[in-house]
Amino acid sequence: MLMKPEDVLRLIAAQRGSAICVPTMTTAPAWRSIAPDDLSVTCVGFMGGASALGLGLALARPDHRVLVLDGDGSLLMQLGSLATVAGAAPRNLVHFLFKNGVYHTSGSQGIPGGLTVDFAMMAKGAGYALACVIHDLEEFRRRLPGLLATEGPVFVELHTGLAEQTPMTAPGSAPFHQQVQDLRVKLLKPRART
Amino acid sequence: MPESIPAPLIIDTLKDTFREARAALAAEVAEPPRHSHLGWILSVPDTHQKTVLAALDKEEAIRVVTCATEDEATALAGGLYIGGEPCVLMIQHAGLYASVNTLRGVAMDGRIPLFYMIGLLSRERDKDPRESRHSMVRYSEPLLDTFGVPHARLEGPDDVHLIPEYYRLSRARRGPAVVLVGLETS
Predict the structure, then answer these.
(1) pLDDT for A101-150, tens place per residue?
(2) A178 — contact with chain B (CB < 8 Å)?
(3) How far apart are CA B98 and CA B94, in angstroms?
(4) What are the angstrom distances between the C-alpha of A147 and each of A41, A42, A50, A61?
(5) Could you say which of B28, B72, B84 has the minimum Cβ distance to residue A60?
């Protein structure tokens, strides 16, 4: 049985600690309700950019772990980012890929190659320190602490069903620029003006 | 007539720009990131700026991340900005065309200051870029105008002051700003 994205996200939320999270597309509405006050910024408005946005955060803030909550259709839009991430070799980056084989947000059209695309193999080939595939929630629960502690970049291909909500059915997230500003303030702590 | 700009001059100017950016951030925030380097260059290799990229290989004060696409470089720059790190994107005009949606999403909708150095490969020395016979050269400035992105031309060594000026401009307007590298660097 395929994992529910919401169940996966709840497990991540429970164990993320001070990690900065970068959800995108169908992970975004659920993450907003599961972890409303965490250090996160949604990749919205430039589909495919979550991994590179997360890479920038990981390089800037080696004192935080960065968790990218990516989608398979999204990653295909900037597939070269696997090599870019691997080349930059951020030790603090964990790249979770929620694989469902479709562009859920736009109406569940199949992605090129469908479920046969082996993203973990591509990440491994690109040079990620670790790449694995997880099909089962119990296995994910068991392995997650180790994955979050492993020196990265780590890639985790998660075989999931469809999320309950998409950005189309559950609009209402804060505008991207506001999310950017909020996270920057949390990370950098601007001095009060006198 | 435009002149080629020596790579060491550009690199020294970038170092000064990064030092100024770090000092400005340190004055503004309580917890700026602490790194041993001055800043980041995000590059999708550009023939026009290849001497700068080659010289940067030997620089420890500036870290270079080579990206597979300009889309990635732009999103990566957004992450660095959120985390408090200064960076410059060094790309080619073809990469600007390729990454316009990400520029719009990150730098304009996200109100993230991004400073680009964009090489005008194939720009003719004796022609205004807008009159170039090469469409990639000819449409660069009109494209930036369409999106309201301020830009200036680096036409010789006397113009390197535009690098910190346009970097500061990107910060002041919280959006993109561009200098176009008119001739191949030396």
Answers:
(1) 999 988 899 999 999 999 999 999 999 999 999 999 999 999 999 999 99
(2) no
(3) 6
(4) 21, 22, 19, 19
(5) B84
What pLDDT is attached to residue A194?
A: 55
**C-alpha span between A101 and B32 (Å, rounded):** 41
* C-alpha triplet B46, B49, B53: angle, nearest 5°: 90
CA torsion A69→A77→A2→A15, rounded to 10°?
-10
Question: Average pLDDT of A174-185?
Answer: 96
Instruction: Find chain B residues with C-beta within 8 A of A88's C-beta.
Output: 65
* Cα distance between residue B182 and residue B172, in whole Å: 25
Question: Which chain B residues are within 8 Å of A187, Cβ to Cβ?
Answer: 31, 82-84
Please name each of the domains of chain A with its CATH number: 5-188 (3.40.50.970)
Please report the pLDDT score of residue A37 as a whole number: 79
Q: Which of B50, B47, B133, B147 is nearest to B97 (CA)?
A: B147
Q: Which tokens belong to A87?
A: 């080349």
Q: What is the mean pLDDT of chain A?
A: 95
Contact criterion met (CB < 8 Å) for B30 and A87: no
Would you tell me the crossing angle of helices A176-188 and B70-83 to the nearest 10 degrees?
50
Q: How close is the nearest chain B Cα to the Cα of A138, in Å?
A: 32
Say how many residues make up chain B: 186
What pLDDT digit, counting tens, does each position of B90-117 carry?
999 999 999 999 999 999 999 999 999 9
pLDDT digits over B18-32, tens only?
999 999 999 999 989
Task: Please tell me the distance in Å from B65's CA to the nearest CA on chain A.
Answer: 6
Name the percent of chain B in helix, strand, coil, to the closest 5.
50, 20, 35
Q: Is the distance from CB of A183 to CB of A41 less than 8 angstroms? A: yes
